[in-house]
Amino acid sequence: MDVLDPKTSAEPAVKWRVPELHPEGRKYVLIAGAVALASFFVWDTLTWPLIGVTLWVALFFRDPVRVTPQGDDILVAPADGLVTMIARVPVPAEMAGEAGIGNAPLVRVSIFMSVFDVHINRTPIAGVIRHVIYISGKFVNADLDKASDENERQHIVVESRDGRRIGFTQIAGLVARRILSFVKPGDMVAAGQRIGLIRFGSRVDIYVPDDFGCQVALGQRCVAGETVVARVGAEQPRGVAQ
Q1: Residue 71: left if φ>0, alpha if ψ -120 to 50, beta else—which one?
Q2: What angle do CA 158, 164, 170 make, to 5 degrees?
Q3: What crossing angle do the helices spanning 47-60 and 23-42 adopt, rounded to 10°?
Q4: pLDDT digit string (tens) for the chain, length 242 residues
Q5: In this structure, what is the dihedral angle of CA atoms 155, 180, 151, 201, given to the nearest 10 degrees?
Q6: Cα 163 vs. chain centroid, distance in angstroms?
Q7: What positions carry a catalytic annotation?
Q8: How far is CA 170 from CA 10, 138, 206, in A?
């Protein structure tokens, strides 16, 4: 972001720019590009479709800049995508207990990422990473409720400065076959900081403490690191048990 000289303007100047390609995606773009180039000499009918695939791979691994709202009283979206579920559910056993996010059921907000969404995941709150728990599993449709318990997944617990612990889960899907983590227990993170990615379509669940109220609705699209998912003191949406 470029800022104008305050002597000539009171407004900051924000310029749009092409999102950068995340380093994790470079090898895939190179592979797709090489296959497209090779097809020109072998079977040129496939060249343009393969160029399209190369562009899609680059789009999938885009890593846009995000501006995160600040405050200890909000949770920001951990993923880009569509809010497909808001429900009070039992806490996953791997995150339960005093060392995790407790034993009482919490409201879970599920954000489904299609293959066209940005797949960089971000922490919903600033603090210290307390747990990173990877669990191998199936690859059923991530849009299904049972994916939270059956699919390959990774639980992350963040403890904020006031001691509050927030849990969220990266879940692999039908197409996704790899969950990558950029953090480990003990790392300090800022709200909206990149914490990992899931390759090729998936879901992220965030567990909302009872003193927070959801600020999103079913069918709403979220922007990771920017959309406020929950706020302290806000009312829960209709249909969610108190």
Answers
A1: left
A2: 30
A3: 180
A4: 333 333 333 445 556 676 788 888 788 889 888 999 898 888 888 889 999 988 888 877 888 999 999 888 999 999 999 999 999 999 999 999 988 999 999 999 999 998 889 889 999 999 999 999 998 866 555 555 555 666 788 999 999 998 999 999 998 866 555 788 899 999 999 999 999 988 766 889 999 999 999 999 999 999 999 999 999 988 776 656 55
A5: 120
A6: 23
A7: 202
A8: 41, 13, 9
Single-letter amino acid code for the residue at 190: A
Nearest to 198 by CA among 218, 233, 173, 223: 173
How far apart CA 108 and CA 95 sit, in angstroms, is 13
Strand partners, 197: 120, 180
Q: Which helix (H) or strand (E) holds 39?
A: helix 23-42
135 contacts 214 by C-beta, under 8 angstroms: no
Q: Which residues contact 14 (CB under 8 A, 6 or more apart)?
A: 1, 2
Instruction: Give this prediction's pTM.
Output: 0.82
